[in-house]
TrEMBL record:
Originating organism: Jiella flava
Protein name (database record): 6-phosphogluconate dehydrogenase, decarboxylating
Quaternary organization: Homodimer.
Catalytic residue positions: 183 (proton acceptor), 190 (proton donor)
GO molecular function: NADP binding; phosphogluconate dehydrogenase (decarboxylating) activity
NCBIfam families cross-referenced by the UniProt entry: gnd, PRK09287.1
UniProt pathway annotation: Carbohydrate degradation; pentose phosphate pathway; D-ribulose 5-phosphate from D-glucose 6-phosphate (oxidative stage): step 3/3
Amino acid sequence: GQADIGVIGMGTMGANLALNIAEKGFKVAVQNRTPAKAFALKDDNPELADNILPAETLEDFVKSLNTPRRVIFMVPAGQPVDDEMDKIRPLLEDGDVMIDAGNADFNDTVRRAKTVEGTGLKFIGMGVSGGELGARHGPSIMVGGDKDTYPLVEPVLTKIAARFHDAPCVAWLGTDGAGHFVKTIHNGIEYADMQMIAEIYGVMRDGLKLEPAKMAAIFRDWNSRELSSYLIEITAVNLDETDPQTGKPMVEVIIDEAGQKGTGRWAVIEAQKLGVGATTLEAAVAARGLSSRREEREHAAGLYAGVEAGQSQFFADEAGFSELESALVTAKIIAYAQGYAAMAAASDENGWDLPLGTIAEIWRAGCIIRSHFLDDIAKAYDKGQKVVNILQAPDFVGRVAKGQSALRRVVAKAALAGIPVPALSAALAYFDDYRRARGTANLTQAQRDLFGAHTFRRFDADGAVHHKWPAV
Ligand code: 6PG
């Protein structure tokens, strides 16, 4: 064979990844269930044609690869990955590497890694973020698998990944499902980021009655400071766009029902399993779910039409905008702290030893949540000291202490005006709970002991005890 690496699946992501690989000077074999698509990739990209080797059959594809063979699957997550693996395995030899680059459930990746163990074949599960453009020009790549398998794919991945200054946004993060787990949390954070931006948009629309073009200007302004990020940048573009058909702002002709493919939900489910409440992420997933029940919401709006919320106390002036900005920054720190806490817990649970600082580093470019802020997180982990939680890292303590009052005011004003801000509220509630040395679980324990003799522990003695409560 003569190809350095192969890609199976010529959907948008697979085709763009293959072009990226070809452009970086590697020869890439390409294959697709309908072979015409693989040949079309070569024909449609004459400048890269020398590096694109389309194959008619899986056998031809395998033959065209250098050994050890490196095969990237870019097919829909779930059964299609297992199907492709089953088809190709008999054609591969000892030392060959299968790489699942889709948005896999990390539990599947752990399972697939096990099925390959001891067979001589190798398996890598890697998260690829950055959408279509990222795949084409430089995604952020989160790799999981055996540490000694990584060098087999590292030269290609390092070349095709996004760059933050000179550093490629790719790293080996841990064994088996580590890469896909981190990608899942990335998506959960992506949901939270997007939801919090949408909530601020809701305040601007319903509380301040601003026109989208004005909102766009505000988001553009924010993009020059702490919030500077891809998602804020695209928000300004979204809000500035005019619908060519009606001449209305584009956002106003778009139905308010959010889609979701499941990765954000996985992040929340996994966090729950680990006993880490990623409540801001959870609020974002729940908000997408409720958004899709539009008819039901419209009916409820009618039922409660007479219910008076208070007057909006939001102000459309510099101080008012700056309060919203500060609230969003603060809630964002809290959301990331939750995502990071889930990764820290998963790392312990799965024995991954996830490099949390490195994860922030490879998220600084290429991926959907790329931002200046991630550089701050990278720096917080870079200082050599152990970071128990982002909310305890010195730089962030100062920022949250300063920003919390703005978050508090925005959440309170939104509540009074009847404007839902579920993710911002969740962030605030979590923060207040997190920094409360003495909580209220003592009462929960008392109740559990009363109705189920579940026992509790006392401040003034060791061990679990049961109290004889009065009969009810
Ligand atoms: C990325 C994204 C991507 C995801 C889309 C859509 O990192 O490039 O996370 O992987 O598929 O953002 O996700 P939803 O359809 O669930 O919104």
